Amino acid sequence: MVPLRWIVALGVLGVVFLGAIAVAFQDNITRFNLKPRVPYQIYTPPPPPNYGARGAWALWPSSQQEKEEGEVGVDVFYIHSTTYSSRKHWNAPIAMDRADKTLRDVAAPNQAGPFMNVGDLYGPRYRQATLFASFTHKYDGIAAHELAYQDIKKSFEHFLKIRNPDNAIILTGYEQGGLHALGLLQEYFAKDDMLRKHLVAAYVINAPTPLSLFDNALKTIPPCRTAADIRCVVAYIDIQPGFDDEEDRFTKRSLIWEENGALESVTQTPLLCVNPLSWSVSDELIDAEKHIGAASATGLRMSETPPAIAHVTSAQCKNGLLLVDAPSQSFLKRRRWFGDHWRPQDFNLFYHDLAADAVRRSFNLEAVLHEEARFLAPIEEAVDLEVSPVNKVPN
């Protein structure tokens, strides 16, 4: 007869072994459990939102910002990151309780919060692609993102109808929202001189931004290369130590919007990285002394500004990614267990750096708009007159 203590010991060893296997393959297990059960070909998406209704917007200004005569107002259009994960849907129904709570309590305060003191915040709810769509470039994931972008387009067109056209615009999107922000840049700003004229900057954060876009679809909207630049794109993907798999995920495959509105998967394409400590595209290591401050705004109202935690990290652009230090503060460290690192984080490592940058670029655009208003548009084409009319001066 086998002694009871041996049975207990074998049971404990079995549990430890299974636990070790689960930890070793946690990302694979998580992705498997996130995959929707129904193929997209036979999937019925949830009904679209009505952007004429207040409930379709997670963020909406309670009142229009007040400005002095001659001052340029600023509108901020924010596209949130993925807050929905489920095996039931490829695209999230609007205002799903858990996903909407994550948006209100975590994503919006930390992602849109840095821009709240610049101008009026507009943030649509949309039928976002479920989290699993971020890991597949097959038909299902691409179709889910394309449907989500159709909502973003409709919300942006409604935003354009109700806003003051003289106001400046800041466009910002995180993760999935960054992909959709790139779509808006290509489809609207790059093709509309007046929109582009009023663009302070676009902030595309934690979404791959291929450099090839700036040779083609975004050739009129360059990367921001200095802290003074306007009408340009800030993009970076911050990577804390220990997330090598994430480095591979971002650098090996990216999605690019085509002219026809379809998504194309591209491999091994160089990415834009603008260092938020220097606001340059160089690969120079920028010391933590330049870091204005991280913050955790989780659970705060959008009107509340979290305290700055300065000098937390250095930053360096390398191979298209922004390499940062592991913060000593535990609440500023990216979560890593069983898919937590793919969900909205409880902090923004460059919260106050982004806030200061948005204010500075807004002032810069305002000055340029005032200067441009002083001059008439140049005559693009000379007209030759065969006979010049002459009026005699009366005696």
Keywords:
395 residues; alpha/beta; six-stranded mixed β-sheet; 8 helices; 11 strands; globular
Secondary structure: elements and pairs:
Blueprint: H1 4-24, H2 26-34, E1 57-59, E2 74-79, H3 97-111, E3 120-124, H4 139-162, E4 168-174, H5 176-187, H6 193-197, E5 199-205, E6 232-236, E7 238-239, H7 244-252, E8 253-257, E9 263-267, E10 315-318, E11 321-324, H8 351-373
Parallel strand pairs: 2-3, 2-4, 4-5, 5-6, 7-11
Antiparallel strand pairs: 1-3, 8-9, 10-11
Helix pairs in contact: 4-5
Shape: globular
Distance between the termini: 135 Å
Radius of gyration: 24 Å
Structural class: alpha/beta
Tally of discrete structural domains? 1
Q: Approximately what portion of the residues adopt beta-strand conformation? A: 5-15%
Task: Note the main sheet.
Answer: 6 strands, mixed
- In what order do the strands lie side by side in the largest sheet? 1-3-2-4-5-6
The overall strand count is 11
The averaged pLDDT comes out at 89
Helix content: 25-40%
The tally of helices reads: 8
Poorly predicted runs: 17-25
Order of helices and strands: HHEEHEHEHHEEEHEEEEH
How would you describe the overall organization of this protein?
The protein is α/β, with parallel strands linked by helices. The protein has one domain (38-63, 70-373). Helices cover 30% and strands 13% of the residues. The protein has eight helices and eleven strands. A six-stranded mixed β-sheet has the order 1-3-2-4-5-6, sandwiched between helices. A hairpin with a 5-residue loop joins strand 8 (253-257) and strand 9 (263-267). Helix 4 crosses helix 5 (176-187). The longest helix is centred in the middle third of the chain and has 24 residues, at 139-162. The chain is globular.
